[in-house]
Amino acid sequence: MIKIEFSEQDLKTIEYERFNHPIPLVQRRMEVLWLKSQGLPHKQIVKLSGVCDNALTKYLRLYRKGGLDEIRKVNFYRPKSELEKYSDGRISKK
To answer: What is the mean pLDDT of residues 52-76?
Structure first.
């Protein structure tokens, strides 16, 4: 079990952003942190939040690593096309 201490300010932010952050993934991460702050066991957090054990562990480690700033980071995968090297970046209008 990962032990985490939450500051009063972080708890207020987590409580707000678990419903109001514009990115649903971040809302889910905040919900996991909120449930953790309430002292629930990991098995119950997994059940209530709908995340898997690995995701729970990942979110808690992210928080320990960089706080809420790290929790808010979302890296969307965007594959690059081989054709991009031939583009000058402008869109032509015909």
So the answer is: 94
Question: CA-to-CA distance for 55 and 29, rounded, in angstroms?
Answer: 9
- Report how far residue 94's alpha carbon sits from residue 82's, in angstroms, rounded to the nearest whole number: 24
Q: Whose structure tokens read 């991460």?
A: 29
Q: Is the pTM of this model over 0.90?
A: no
Distance CA 33, CA 83 (A): 42
Q: Which residue has the tokens 């109001």?
A: 20
pLDDT value at residue 7:
94
Beta carbons within 8 Å of 67's beta carbon, 6+ residues apart: 10
Q: How far apart are CA 76 and CA 66, in angstroms?
A: 19
